[in-house]
Specification:
Blueprint: H1 3-8, E1 18-20, E2 27-29, H2 101-109, E3 136-138, E4 154-161, E5 181-189, E6 196-201, E7 206-209, E8 212-215, E9 221-224, E10 227-231, H3 243-254, E11 260-264, H4 266-275, E12 279-283, E13 287-289, E14 294-296, E15 299-303, H5 306-313, H6 323-343, H7 348-360, E16 362-365, H8 371-381, E17 389-393, E18 396-398, E19 405-407, H9 409-420, H10 430-440, E20 452-456, H11 463-475, E21 480-485, E22 494-497, H12 502-512, E23 519-521, E24 525-526, E25 532-538, E26 560-562
Length: 570
């Protein structure tokens, strides 16, 4: 019998499976209606290779009989009160105080709703407070940070594999293949939990796959040799590569260190879409795809099960028939699924169905293979409003072979820097950005009139000299001077100017892409020509002349959509 069935057996109210532990302040799951022990039963969690861990027998503490409830322990699970016309146990029971719909939802979700990501071949995450015996774990082989933590930004890699596992999936994927990284999303949650960026990584994108130390069945570590100029999707499954290798490949590509990974199979899309009663999707034209077997009319349709999987796998009947067009379908599906889950937040039955479906289709790294870690992560993710969840894709250009794509370095680098720098792609911090832009806009000074002394206060050798060359040769600021290293070193770049040099300061800030916070009205100094000059000290946040200094800004020329918006595939 599954967890949901156990919860409904013997007239047990499903809501009563959750009780407050007075020692921890957490709501805990009681699946055994008669047992006195609190919390979640000892899990039989699968390891990387699906073998159950040994069950451990709990010993009663000295002075207490086995099964005796200690003081302050969570009480045993209550039974549902039977209607008056049914036989029940003798005695009277005090009427239970009714909880509001909102509080009931919080009880079921442990304090908040964690949203779930599922895409393409599959990819899923869902906040769960039970069923970790369904989870399969795999080593991250040292590729991650050791796990997410409160107080800092979170980066989770969600991978959908096209390995043909699960009932009814024999007709999908490559016969006999160990699978690929068919659909991959890098999920970044900001440090202040106000926004989230979901970055899709095209499977046919050419990347360099690094050497990957990988734990083997016998416990030994083997280094899987890296391959340059390879499709991204072979970073998983092929040549013995595990999810940790996909993590290393994404870090090599983006410069972003990843905290955790999650891998799911085809069944995640099928079962999760059915658990919420179907997901609404929209098409600008009817689709009848012989390859994915998707057959939908123009307009809005509700898909679940095999139809949902067919929707996220369709590529040849939308747009130009590329994987990039398929990614747009997946992002539409994800957004809609999130909205459905938000609506179903107060339905205990639906939440249990989702928990069952997600954990059975999910493999997580070993630092996440614990129900309380998942709960805490879900609480962090659930703080983000849907309108502040942005979907975007790594910018690419067509390759000459017509079958693969290449990273568009000019657009991708600022996007990666924005995510790494914890910059939102939504409008949550737009007012601050606009205010700073207005401060630096409108300089009337000519470049030839700008006088500045440049110092190197960073650890980058030659930074001041390179900046002087850049200002003089690229922008005609021939009155700039380079005066060597600055002592002490400083972390942030600063530009100090006298009040009558404010316009020159705005001009220089515009050229060097300095943030408004770098400008400081104060005193000038004399340059080598005996004239007053501004003082520019390059800090550790300086990378190269012309590159944005300090906190990066979100690029404006990328395609993105927000999770609260309804779109139609073209």
């Amino acid at each position: 019998m599954d967890a949901q069935g156990r919860g409904r057996a013997e007239n047990v109210d499903p809501a009563d499976q959750w009780v407050l532990n007075p020692q921890t302040g957490d709501y805990e799951l009681r699946l055994n209606p008669s047992g006195p022990e609190s919390g979640i039963p000892s899990p039989r969690r699968r390891t990387q290779y699906g073998q159950p861990r040994e069950n451990r027998t709990r010993q009663a503490p000295p002075g207490r009989r086995p099964g005796q409830q200690p003081p302050g322990e969570v009480p045993g699970q209550r039974r549902r009160r039977l209607p008056d016309d049914q036989d029940g146990p003798a005695g009277r029971r005090r009427p239970r105080q009714q909880k509001s719909k909102g509080k009931k939802a919080l009880m079921w979700t442990g304090g908040t709703l964690a949203f779930l990501l599922v895409a393409g071949a599959a990819g899923a995450y869902f906040y769960i407070e039970h069923l970790n015996d369904n989870l399969t774990t795999a080593s991250d082989d040292g590729a991650g940070t050791g796990g997410w933590a409160k107080g800092r930004a979170i980066n989770v890699l969600i991978i959908g594999t096209d390995k043909r596992t699960g009932k009814g999936n024999e007709g999908y994927g490559d016969t006999g293949s160990p699978g690929h990284a068919d659909t991959t999303i890098l999920l970044h949650v900001s440090k202040d939990r106000t926004n989230t960026t979901a970055l899709s990584i095209p499977r046919d994108m050419i990347v360099d796959i690094p050497d990957c130390p990988t734990k083997q069945d016998d416990g030994q570590t083997k280094v899987i040799p890296g391959t340059p100029n390879e499709r991204f999707n072979v970073s998983l499954g092929q040549s013995g590569r595990t999810p940790s290798c996909t993590m290393r490949t994404v870090t090599e590509l983006t410069g972003i260190k990843i905290d955790n990974f999650m891998v799911a199979d085809f069944n995640a899309v099928k079962t999760l879409s059915s658990a919420v009663g179907g997901v609404d999707v929209c098409l600008d034209k009817p689709i009848k795809d012989p390859k994915s077997h998707l057959d939908l009319p123009k307009g809005t349709s509700t898909v679940e099960g095999d139809d949902a999987l067919a929707f996220v796998r369709t590529r040849y009947s939308v747009g130009f028939g590329s994987d990039l067009d398929r990614i747009k379908l997946q992002q539409q599906f994800l957004s809609s699924l999130m909205r459905e889950m938000k609506d179903e937040m107060s339905s205990p039955g639906t939440m249990l169905d989702l928990a069952e479906a997600a954990t059975k289709a999910l493999t997580v790294d070993d630092t996440l293979g614990d129900v309380f870690k998942l709960r805490d992560l879900g609480m962090e993710l659930g703080k983000v409003d849907l309108k502040n969840i942005s979907f975007t894709t790594v910018p690419v250009v067509d390759n000459t072979d017509g079958a693969t794509v290449l990273v568009n370095e000019a657009k991708a680098k600022p996007l990666f820097a924005a995510i790494k720098g914890d910059v939102s792609l939504t409008a949550t911090k737009k007012k601050q950005k606009d205010k700073e832009a207005a401060r630096l806009k409108g300089s009337k000074s000519a470049a030839a009139d700008v006088r500045v002394n440049v110092y190197n206060g960073s650890d980058t050798q030659g930074a001041a000299g390179k900046t002087l060359t850049y200002l003089q040769t690229e922008h005609g600021m021939n009155k700039a001077s380079q005066l060597g290293n600055h002592d002490p070193k400083q972390s942030k770049t600063t530009l100090e100017y006298s009040p009558d040099q404010a316009d020159q300061a705005r001009k220089l800030a515009e050229v060097l892409k300095l943030p408004g916070s770098a400008l400081k009205e104060g005193k000038s100094e004399t340059n080598d020509q005996g004239l007053p000059a501004m003082v520019l000290i390059l800090g550790s946040d300086f990378s190269e002349p012309g590159a944005p200094v300090g906190a990066p800004t979100a690029p404006d020329d990328i395609d993105k959509t927000e999770a609260d918006k309804k779109t139609c595939a073209k």
